[in-house]
Design goal:
Helices cover about 40% and strands about 20% of the residues. By secondary structure, it is α/β, with parallel strands linked by helices. α5 packs parallel to α6. The model has no long low-confidence stretch (mean pLDDT about 90).
Length: about 180
Amino acid sequence: MGSTALIVIDMLNTYEHQDADVLVRSVREALPGIGALLEQARDAGAPVVYVNDNFGRWRSHHGEILEAALAGRYGDLVEPIAPDERSLFVVKARHSVFYETPLAYLLGQLDVQRVVLCGQVTEQCVLYSALDAHIRHLDVVVALDAVAHIDAGLADAALRMMERNMSAELRPSHEITFEDATSG
């Protein structure tokens, strides 16, 4: 049986875009859930994979992306959920965490069969990532209190689509468990 991985989507963000002010309000609400998931996954020894947009900086790496986000206007949103030394990192350029990234290969190498998705934006990157995970025959869980949105109505519709069309489990973070990847 495969393990469970936590996928943290686009949380290393400088919030220098058109919808940033609306998104920031929702991110503040999602931070406690994301923090709880990070703690649970790390305590269980489960893989934690940050998949983040490179914001068109094609010579960047995860350290530079993290530094820019921490130094940005909303570094306080990044600091509490920053990657630790065991976290894995994948750079993406489009909405889905799988689109032209090595994530599927990495999850296969880790024998992951179930992904827990958290981060931003529910009606965009989380939705497309859930679809791509489902297409790859991964079990999908979306942490309801650990995803942020720009448009609440679209986010609700996206969550319904994930549940109905992609067989995603929708759960609050405190109901999500991670198999102990260090045992067996």
